Each structure stands twice: as C-alpha cells, then as structure tokens.
Amino acid sequence: MFEQLAIIGCGLMGGSFALALKRAGLVKRVVGYSKSPTTTARAHQMGVIDVEAASALEAVAGSDIVLIAVPVAATEATFKTIQPLVTPEMLIMDVGSTKRDVVDAARRALREKVGSFVPAHPIAGKEVSGVEHSDVDLYQGRQLILTPIERTQARQLQQAVDVWTALGSRVVKMSPESHDAAFAAVSHLPHLISFAFMNAIAGQPQGQDYLSLAGPGFRDFSRIAASDAKVWRDIMMSNREELLAQTKIFQLNLQAIELMIASGNSEALEGLIDQASLARSHWRMVQQQK
Amino acid sequence: MFEQLAIIGCGLMGGSFALALKRAGLVKRVVGYSKSPTTTARAHQMGVIDVEAASALEAVAGSDIVLIAVPVAATEATFKTIQPLVTPEMLIMDVGSTKRDVVDAARRALREKVGSFVPAHPIAGKEVSGVEHSDVDLYQGRQLILTPIERTQARQLQQAVDVWTALGSRVVKMSPESHDAAFAAVSHLPHLISFAFMNAIAGQPQGQDYLSLAGPGFRDFSRIAASDAKVWRDIMMSNREELLAQTKIFQLNLQAIELMIASGNSEALEGLIDQASLARSHWRMVQQQK
After folding, report:
1. What is the pLDDT of residues B45-84, one digit of tens each?
2. Contact A200 B227 (CB under 8 A)
3. Would you call A208 an interface residue with chain B, using a CB distance cutoff of 8 Å?
4. Shortest CB distance from A276 goes to which of B199, B215, B273?
5. How many other CB atoms sit within 10 Å of the CB of residue B45?
6. Residue spans in chain A of domains classed CATH 3.40.50.720
7. What is the model's pTM?
C-alpha cells in the first residue's frame, strides 16, 4: 500500500496506471503533473488524479511511488528535475518502449539515487493517446517487462513486481539490451512498416479512392499507423540501431517474395507464404492467467 | 427468389454465401461441390448445403444461381467444366480477389455464354479458411465489388446487385482494371508485407523469444499473415504487375523513413510519421448503412 502516487505525464499510460492502482486499493492519493496545465486539469476533472502539481518536482514531494510517463526523449529532463527529492525508499518507474536509453538517462540524471529506479515497459497501449482514453483495464492480462540494472535496489524491484502483478500484468525481467532487440523486432519494426505503408498508399494520386475500398484486413494491419508521431519519433531514434538492423532483415524477406512473384516461381512463393502463415497461426499472445 | 443455388467450392466464402442466402429466404435448395468429397460431405452435415454433387457440372444442372468460390487459379478450369450447362438465364458469380484474370478466364472458357457471368469480389474474409468457419453474417455491412464487362447481361448484373444488397452488402461497380489496381494497394500489398514480416521475425535465431513478447499491436498488424498460402499464391501471381508496382512504392516510402532515422533527422522523421498517422486516423471503413 502506497501513501501517494506521482504521475508525471498525465496521458493514456499514466492515467490508466493511476486508475488501476486506485481501484486495486494500493494508493491513498494521486498527484499529477503534465507539461500542459490544461492536461493536468483535465486529469483532475476526470478523477484520474486527486491533486494537480505545478511541477514534476512538486509532484514527487511526499510521494512513495512515482510513474514517469512522458515521451522517451523527455525522460532524462524529468529525472534531472526530480533528482533532488528522490529518496532511497521511493519507487520510481517509467513506461517507455525503449530501455537502454532510459537506463543511460537514469544513470546520468539520478546519479547515486539510480537504485530507486526500476525501468518498466508495459506491453499495452492504444492507437489513441491522451488522458481522456485512460482505461482502468489497460494493463490487465498484459505482459510487463522490467529491465533492472545491477544498481537497482532489490526492495524496489520486488515492489515493482508486486504492483504490476496486482494490476493483472504478467511480469517478465530481462536486460535492457535484450529488451530493445526484441521490441525492435516485434513492435518498432511493425510501426515503421505501417507508417511507410500508409504514406505509400495515401501519397498516390488515386490513394483516397483506393482507401475507400479497404476492408477489415487493411483496418487491422494499419491500425498502429495512427500512433502518436512524437512518441514514435522518439522510440525510433532511441532504438535506431536495432530497428535499422530489423528493417534490413525485413526487406531481404520482402525481396525474396518479390523475386518469386516476378520470376513466376509459384511453388517457391507458396512455400514462403506457407512458412509465414504457419508461424503466425502458431503464435499466441501471452496473457496473464486469471 | 431462386430455385437452386450451386456452390462450387464449399469453403468459408461459399459456405457463408449459402447460409446467408438461405436465411434471407432467397433460395429453396443449395447444391454443393468441392474437389474433396469429405469437404462436400462436411458442408452437407453442417447444413450449409442440402445436396452433395459429384461434380461441378452436376451442381450447375438445374441451378439458376451459381457461386464459384474456388482458388483463383482453379477458376478457368471450373468455367470450362460447367460451360455446357450454362444457360442465358443463369446468374454465375465468383468471389475472387483479382478480377482481370477471372474476366479473361471467363471469356476464354464460357465463350458466347460469358454474359451470364458477373464478376464479384466481397471485401470480407477471415484469416481462417474452410467451410467449418462459415459465417452467416460474413457479408453483412461489407463492400461488394462487381466488375461487369461490356458483354455482361443487364439482367444478371441487376440480379447480382439485388442479391448482395439483400445480404447487407454495399455494392460498388468498377472496371476489372480499376479493381485490381486498388486491391493491389489496399489488400495484396499488406498481405505481402505481413508474410515477409513474419518470415523476417520467425527466421531469426531469437525469433521465438521475440515472438513470446509480442503484444496487441503485433497481433493486429500480423493477423493477415495467417492467411491461406494457396489462395494468396494465386492472388499474387494473378495480380503480379500491380502488386510489384505497389511494393516498389512501399519500399521507397520505407527507405525514406529509414534515411531519416539513420541520419538522425528527428524533425523530418516526425513529419513522415505524422503524415501516416493523420492519414490512418482519418480513414473509416465504408460500411452498409442499416
């Protein structure tokens, strides 16, 4: 049970965490801060937070649990701002989709207090953003990755496991490096592809006519292309090496299929599609056991 | 009201059409034929068809409406088989995802009887196939493209419009050429990409570990990669020129984003993502008004 949760960045991720923690009865009071005061006010109006803070530092004052839910590129500045009030007992987490850069930022900005920080990445989200889309069930049944470093304190790490487990998440621990390699493949690459795909279609003279004919396959395939530009700019820049390696592998596979089509090699084409179809048919999303 | 519907190819598309036509009270009797007798028998057991035919020709005998729902590559052979029993009053339709090749096949195989054929493409489907997945609501609220040619008889064209409208589909007419260009972009390209993507991930040494971490974004993006290999082999081969043109445009757009990432041009990257995100956010799937 925590006394006070500080949400820094009252958006979809932070708002959903606050709602879930309250419903679970794990926190008495939620203080929120967003860069835009109107966002903080809206979070207050919606009952996502109880108190509006005028700064990240003010939000952290007196809090025993802090969730940093700002765009990845703003993480280091946030760590610097709150550093003076970070205590050895405080649990600080983030929700960023990349972890090496966040860990590096935490080392630089939190310095000797870095042990209070437990890097976290919930595998949950929506293609819409903003506190108005907060969802108390967002983390329920989803995986939650923690990427502790050697300096992470055991007590805070255990608290992080306990909190997310209580919210219904399935907690997985791995190194920041393993995390970033895996998510370049299964998250950052599909986003990159879907952005390029939408631009390719919409940029054609008849693009709008084509789009008016698109059906359910298109809808699901392109859903993530509607994601927030600033958030994804930061993720892609932060994890650029892993992502560029993945997009090269993808293009080689794409060109292999193209070659079979262009050369009329129907049998080999079927083999490549079949391989993909089997791989996808066997895949099941890991979900928390109820 | 039709006397007898012949379903040639008792799979997801044919089975769903039979169920929907029966529920709408538009047909008295359904005769079915599949290449595999066990499939025909299963369709019978499930009540999707009333009578099992031993051949496509036998199914067509005495039918006033015929739906050919076989893989695209088998369409011409089916036309040839049934040609002797095609009458000027009969309405024949297909459900193929490509239309130029089907129209060419119909001209060659049906010859002077080609006017009874109305090429059709329902924008509906599932990533699973087989008659056991038949769904009476599959076509409800979906678009249905008809691509008549100059020799298509007006009476049959009107019947086709009426039948699909009665099933809840929104009927759109266009040329086979426009159809194939549009669906190369919004359907065949996303399938090609999703197959290449799955192969790229699953083919890596740590692919299975990566896949175990994938979440809802991956799930939706890759759903169509589970599609049937034979069906998609045929579609891609049939529409290869349009598809290869689309995949080139896609790769140029992908490489533009890659270049912004590699060169660290964060502002231009955000611009490209924002463009994609806006295009996708504004898109709405056309659905039949109730």
Report:
1. 999 999 999 999 999 999 999 999 998 889 999 999 999 9
2. no
3. no
4. B199
5. 11
6. 2-174
7. 0.88
Asked whether B41 and B159 are in contact (CB, 8 A), the reply is: no
A1 interfacial to chain B (CB closer than 8 Å): no
Instruction: State the pairing for strand pair A170-173/B51-52.
Output: unpaired
CB within 8 Å: A213 and B280: no
ipTM: 0.89
Across the strands, what pairs with B145?
A: B121, B172
Residue linked to tokens 């993720």? A235
Q: Which residue of A has its CA nearest to B286?
A: A212
Sheet holding A117-118, edge to edge: A51-52, A27-33, A2-8, A65-68, A91-94, A117-118
CATH number, domain A2-174, options 3.90.640.20, 3.40.50.720, 3.90.1150.10, 3.40.50.2000: 3.40.50.720
Is residue A274 within 8 angstroms of chain B, CB to CB?
A: yes
Q: Tell me whether residues B280 and A225 touch, CB distance under 8 A.
A: yes
By C-alpha distance, which of A164, A163, A123, A121 is closest to A146? A121
Taking an 8 Å cut-off on Cβ atoms, the answer to whether B185 and A210 are in contact is yes
State which amino acid sits at residue B217.
G
DSSP B214: -
Superfamily, domain A178-282: 6-phosphogluconate dehydrogenase C-terminal like domain (1.10.3660.10)
- pLDDT, tens digit (0-9, with 9 covering 90-100), for B146-203: 999 999 999 999 999 999 999 999 999 999 999 999 999 999 999 999 999 999 999 9
Cβ-Cβ contacts under 8 Å, B263 against chain A: none
